[in-house]
Amino acid sequence: MKINIQQIKQRFGIIGNSLPLNRAIETAIQIAPTDLSVLIVGESGTGKEVFSQIIHQNSARKHHQYIAINCGAIPDGTIDSELFGHEKGAFTGAIDSRKGYFELADGGTIFLDEVGELPLSTQVRLLRVLEVGEYIRVGSSKIQKTNVRIIAATNSNLQKAIDAGKFREDLYYRLNRVPISILPLRERREDIPLLFRKFSTDICEKHGIPLLRLDDAANELLKNYYWKGNIRQLKNIAEQISILESERNISAQTLAAYLPQTNQNQALAIIAKDNSNANYANERDSLFQLLFDLKKDMSELKKLVFDILNSSESELQLSNENAQMLQKIYTTDLAYYDKQKQKQEEELIEYETVNNSISQIEDAQEIEENTLLLANNEMDIIKRALVKYSGKRKLAAKELGISERTLYRKIKEYNL
């Protein structure tokens, strides 16, 4: 008999019609008849255990044991005993032998929630079970056999845990033979009002109180809230409001009072002060459109100014005041352009100066040597000029093409 998604939703109480949710359910149905291990990935509170139950209940193992284990809730010192059992006297307090979950669930399914919390030593034992179906009780040397299907789940990034050396890569690939990703509630917003209505209706009918009704703004707030705790948090809020509020018509302001302040900054932006149901997305789009229109108007205005200033026979007749205003706008824009251009040129000069300084430093020694060489040559030339004109500085300076004062300074410098 073919099982459809709607039947699964009704049987397991799943609310929502988003495409990612339907795809996850469809995957669970398709792999249920197989014995492949499954890794369910999703944030805390997204309902990962429901998918493990879907897989078990639609498999050939449905008449055998199903055991759900929270790996993070069992201390490291006792988790091996819980999973694989122990022999009498294996450790202090082991007054009798005990079967582990893998022995109790033989032929059935074990759901390992928060599998990323397993100690490395336990990961080695689990890998052995996945590979050959064998394990050893704590304190024993006898190999035990088990036929268990393992479905694991995590809300952490196992790839990062592998990189940090906290999770075995070979175990990851064994568990992740078929992955199922459960999206957080904020990524399936269209399902949020349906879930709220379901949780609120259930609690109201249970306690015999009138049903709640959310106005449009409150529904928008529900859909745009971050929901860090996902379905678990949404159910908590729905039950609180249903029990505590005497007014059964719930506004956005009333709903906001029940939402933690840490995440309200994103959601409260959609609540208008006059209780209108203005949509935040529409306001954002309108703002962008206004900016685009303003940019277009400025471009047209600058083009008009340019045409006027460069046309000698313009048919446009402008008053002196308007002409001066347009001239000011245009020149201001040109000044800004020139300023930006000058800034770019200065940055280019600075860049070239830095690059040139490197070569200057490398050539410093060579420059110093050349300077000394030039000084010696200059001294010889001055001597010759002075000898030629019998020490007459004025004539010697004219011959050298320098002033008499400069020649006098050079004579003192070279002690001639």
Describe this structure in words.
With 416 residues, the protein is an alpha/beta fold. It has 18 helices and nine strands. The protein has helices at 5-12, 19-31, 48-57, 76-84, 101-104, 120-132, 158-163, 169-175, 192-207, 216-224, 230-244, 252-256, 264-267, 280-309, 320-362, 364-388, 393-400, 404-414, and strands at 38-42, 66-70, 109-113, 134-136, 143-145, 149-154, 178-182, 213-214, 249-250. The strands form three sheets. It has a five-stranded parallel beta sheet with strand order 2-3-6-1-7. A two-stranded antiparallel ribbon has the order 4-5. A two-stranded parallel ribbon has the order 8-9. The protein starts with a helix and ends with a helix. The relative contact order is 0.07. The model is unreliable at 263-281 and 364-373 (pLDDT under 50).
Annotation keywords:
416 residues; alpha/beta; 5-stranded parallel sheet; two-stranded antiparallel sheet; 9 strands; 57% helix; 9% strand; elongated
Q: Specify the overall morphology.
A: elongated
Give the count of helical stretches.
Answer: 18
Along the chain, the helix and strand elements come as HHEHEHHEHEEEHHEHEHHEHHHHHHH
Task: Provide the residue-averaged pLDDT.
Answer: 80
Radius of gyration: 42 Å
Bin the strand percentage: 5-15%
Helix content range:
55-70%
State the major sheet.
5 strands, parallel
The helix/strand class is: alpha/beta
Distance between the ends: 118 Å
